[in-house]
Design brief:
Blueprint: H1 2-11, H2 23-38, H3 47-66, H4 75-100, E1 112-119, E2 124-126, E3 129-141, E4 157-162, E5 184-193, H5 206-213, E6 217-221, E7 231-235, H6 240-255, H7 259-270, H8 278-287, H9 297-315, H10 319-324, H11 327-345, H12 350-368, H13 374-388, H14 396-410, H15 427-457, E8 459-461, H16 464-485, H17 492-511, E9 517-519, H18 525-539, H19 544-547, H20 550-558, E10 571-574, E11 583-586, E12 591-594, E13 599-601, E14 604-605, H21 606-617, E15 624-627, H22 632-635, H23 638-644, E16 649-652, H24 660-663, E17 666-668, E18 674-677, E19 680-686, H25 689-693, E20 704-708, E21 713-716, H26 722-731, E22 739-741, H27 753-759, E23 763-766, H28 779-787, E24 792-794, H29 795-798, E25 801-804, E26 812-813, H30 814-817
Parallel strand pairs: 4-6, 12-15, 15-16, 16-17, 21-22, 22-23, 23-24
Antiparallel strand pairs: 1-3, 1-5, 2-3, 3-4, 5-6, 5-7, 8-9, 10-11, 10-25, 11-12, 13-14, 18-19, 19-20, 20-21, 25-26
Helix pairs in contact: 2-4, 2-13, 3-4, 6-7, 7-16, 7-17, 8-17, 9-11, 9-12, 11-12, 12-13, 13-14, 14-15, 15-16, 15-18, 16-17, 18-20, 21-23
Length: 827
């Protein structure tokens, strides 16, 4: 009896019910809050401030540990929250300060540098070009770059592009790029710049992604007559996993003739998501199965589950092993170890890291015999993941995975200790029960994550439940095992390709159904949180009177509509799309897009990357797409925009044989065209009808649009040159504008004195790429604007630019409105 009491006292701390004040749980919650607060900082504090926070948090934690045995002390929860917040915020800030100290020196941007380093990951070959990461060993200035030969300090990891194109227009194109493999040492001349991405409302934060990946600079390999050719120094034994991944990916593409199927197989085996065709990604997102087409948490969890089952069965066959370690615990450890190996082979991406951490935490608690309520286990897993990668808190995958797991726990669909099914159940009944459980869990997750999908992706797949019911077992139990087994038996890749093709045909049919997906406006954070809470209430095992209370909360997120300008007013949003034009004009009930940005490559453009997501986030239904002229930096994203906006008319100066005419017949823009929307007047000022017959160059035919509500005006001038500017002034029409979209991105051949004097702009906008090779805006244009006291707003420094006619003298910069310490601040 006495021994039993002593054993009970020893085991009591493991039972949550035996601890009256579980201060460690509050410390975990505080650690998440501390990370969230630190990630809101616009600029980093001195590193000493973070050290003080960290030391203070550790001191509070030590005090809590010393006083752990005390009962009846309600202040322990407050101290635990404080300790967790101080430690996590101080630790995150300290790490961030170390990363920031390794940033690229701005004086080295655009300078030719000779770098020696190791190819860090398997390279990506796209459209004949190479993208790869280089771990820097040494660097120096190139000869002729000023102080040639002097050593320089660079960030540890570079992201480089090696482009198969002419160095200059008068030089011949180079031969095919040489093979580049992970683990090789190279010496090459590069030109670098700080990681700088497009920054738009609800858009992808490339700079955060680069920060999290450890990429300190982007650049290009110099392979022209003015630079020494890249030189392969040696093949090393380093990066063996990356070399194996690369060899496996290349073997898949060499064996499987169907390139789209090969790309999906390569993504499932090696984690190379870039191998999947963009059109396939569109189908996967429409049907809600995109999470299955790469190494996801589901794949790693299923792999761990299989490893646990097989490992446990094998372990039980050895009496010696059973005596050394119980089979259930050994199987859990083996499952986590093999899952980590699988995640490492797949590239050790952030989602894979999160899943391995979650599995390790839950398995460690089970092995230790700790019985915590599910919220405590959930908090512990979150805290461990954020301790390893604090910036994961701002990634969509973190919230999707952890909210999904939390919802399943809350709904009773995922008991922590697992269930013990009735042994009397027949095989068919078990199969039916498992199928019903899987369908219920998928329905629960789909309903609860719908508000998050609206916030993160502005899309809700209405056929996602059906598509996932088919795709989850097919991909997890058929495609992925065949793809993985193909590493040893390559002929199995043919079977995997057949399975992928069959699934692709079904998904394409589902995606083509009317109403397959629903476009949703991006709700604010508070509305999305309310929607998630509403979804959780609906799926929890509660009385229906409480469940139905979740419907209005869910509706707040799913029915959210962004505010529009009042009648008689309008607003402009100049998207941050790099070197090109794209300006969204919104009135009370109508919208127009002026130009559609550049094409970044054959399979990537501003329409897909920036404009379609932006229009979706604002729930815009375009009435008109106006393309100023045919140049690719103005029409590159038009095809994607037209595909996403079937009701939009097309007004342009493109020729009748232009490929876009096959997608949507275009009306020719001519001076004198005008219309009124919601009290706002639109007028085309250029070109004249006679200009088309004169065979002018495309820039000279740019459609110039003036927008006016009687109080404020904007002039969008395309790429017209000084000759066309003089013609506009000589015609004598109204040109005065509060906003001038500077012609031709601020080139020296535009923005004449006559035009600037006639427009008298209150501000001038330039949409151009960061450190673009054209030098836009030209110094002469900048000087002319400065001499007239006109503020110059550049998208490369400002991000997306937003302006309202109600406050005609003010503008908003996305980069200023959402400043964070990891974002680039151009000088």
């Amino acid at each position: 009896m006495e021994q039993h009491a002593r054993r009970t006292r020893v085991q009591a701390p493991h039972d949550a019910a035996a601890t009256p004040w579980p201060w460690p749980v509050w410390a975990l919650a505080g650690s998440m809050g501390g990370v969230a607060l630190q990630l809101q900082q616009a600029a980093l504090w001195p590193v000493g401030a973070y050290v003080v926070l960290l030391v203070a948090g550790l001191a509070v934690l030590w005090r809590l540990c010393r006083g752990h045995g005390r009962r009846g002390a309600p202040w322990l929860a407050v101290l635990a929250l404080m300790a967790g917040a101080l430690i996590s915020s101080g630790g995150t800030g300290w790490r961030a300060s170390g990363i920031a100290a390794q940033a690229l020196d701005p004086a080295l941007e655009g300078v030719d540098l000779v770098v020696t380093g190791l190819v860090d990951q398997m390279p990506q070959r796209v459209d004949g070009n190479l993208r790869f990461r280089l771990a820097v060993a040494s660097a120096e200035r190139a000869e002729g770059a000023g102080e040639g030969g002097s050593a320089v300090l660079l960030p540890p990891l570079l992201s480089l592009g090696w482009y198969a194109e002419r160095e200059r227009a008068d030089t011949p194109p180079p031969a095919a790029l040489p093979a580049l493999h992970a683990g090789e040492r190279w010496r090459m001349t590069v030109r670098l710049k700080a990681p700088h991405g497009s920054l738009n409302p609800h858009g992808f934060d490339y700079e955060l992604w680069a920060w999290e990946q450890g990429i300190g600079a982007n650049g290009s390999v110099r392979d022209g007559p003015r630079a020494a050719p890249p030189q392969r120094l040696a093949a090393t034994w380093r990066r063996p996993v990356e070399r194996l991944r690369e060899a496996t990916r290349d073997a898949i593409f060499a064996h499987v003739a169907d390139a789209p199927a090969a790309g999906i197989i390569a993504a499932l085996v090696t984690g190379d998501q870039a191998a999947i065709e963009r059109d396939d990604w569109t189908v996967f997102r429409t049907t809600g199965v995109a999470h299955l087409m790469s190494i996801s948490g589901l794949h790693i969890t299923m792999f761990a589950w299989l490893a646990v089952g097989v490992g446990g069965a094998l372990w039980r066959r050895s009496a010696r092993l059973m005596l050394a370690w119980p089979a259930p615990q050994a199987a859990l450890a083996l499952g986590v170890a093999l899952a980590a190996a699988y995640a490492l082979f797949s590239g050790w991406g952030v989602p894979a890291q999160r899943t391995v951490c979650m599995l390790a935490v839950v398995s460690a608690l089970r092995i230790a015999g700790v019985r915590w309520p599910w919220p405590c286990v959930w908090l512990l897993a979150c805290a461990v993941v954020l301790a390893l990668d604090p910036w994961a808190l701002l990634q969509a995958g973190f919230w999707l995975s952890f909210v999904a797991v939390g919802v399943l726990f809350a709904a009773g669909s995922m008991p922590l200790q697992g269930g013990t099914g009735s042994g009397s159940q027949g095989g068919m009944r078990r199969v039916v029960a498992a199928a019903w459980r899987m369908c219920r869990e998928q329905g629960v997750v789909t309903l609860a994550l719908a508000p998050l999908g609206a916030l993160l992706f502005q899309q809700l797949s209405l056929i996602g439940l059906v598509a996932n019911a088919l795709a989850i077992p097919w991909v997890t139990l058929v495609v992925t095992p065949l793809a993985m087994a193909g590493i040893a038996l390559p002929f199995l890749w043919d079977l995997a390709a057949w399975a992928v093709q069959w699934l692709g045909a079904v998904l394409q049919w589902l995606a083509a159904l009317p109403g397959a997906s629903l476009a949703l406006a991006a709700p604010p954070l508070w509305a999305a949180a309310a929607g998630v809470l509403g979804g959780v209430l609906l799926v929890m095992r509660l009385p229906w009177s409480l469940r139905l209370a979740g419907l209005p909360l869910l509706g707040v997120a799913l029915l959210w509509q962004p505010a529009r300008p009042p009648h008689g007013q309008f607003e402009l949003i100049a998207a941050d799309i790099g070197q090109g034009n794209a300006v969204l004009v919104r009135t009370a009930r109508h919208s127009l897009l002026y130009d559609a940005g550049p094409a970044y490559g054959p399979r990537n453009d501003a329409g897909r990357r920036v404009l379609v997501p932006l229009l979706g986030a604002l729930d815009e239904r375009l009435d008109l797409l106006l393309l100023s002229h045919r140049d690719s930096d103005h029409t590159g994203g038009a095809a994607a925009v037209l595909a996403a906006q079937p009701a939009a008319r097309l007004l342009a100066s493109i020729e009748p044989a232009h490929p876009l005419q096959a997608l949507r017949p275009a009306q020719r823009c001519e001076a004198g065209q005008q219309w009124t929307w919601d009290g706002v007047r639109f007028e085309v000022l250029h070109p004249l009808a006679a200009d088309y017959a004169a065979a002018l160059p495309p820039n000279a035919l740019s459609c110039v649009l003036r927008i006016d509500n009687g109080q404020a005006a904007a002039l969008l001038a395309g790429d017209i040159g000084k000759a066309q500017e003089r013609e506009l002034v000589q015609r004598g029409g109204p040109l005065r504008a509060d906003v001038l979209l500077v012609p031709h991105h601020g080139s020296a051949g535009s923005s004449s004195e006559e035009l600037l004097d006639a427009v008298q702009p209150g501000m001038a906008w330039v949409q151009a790429g960061y450190r673009n090779r054209f030098g836009h805006p030209a110094p002469a244009v900048t000087q002319a604007l400065r001499a007239r006291g006109v503020p110059l707003v550049e998208s490369s420094r400002c991000g997306a630019i937003r302006w309202h006619s109600e406050a005609a003298s003010a503008w908003q910069c996305e980069r200023e409105q959402t400043r964070r310490y990891w974002r680039h601040s151009p000088r």
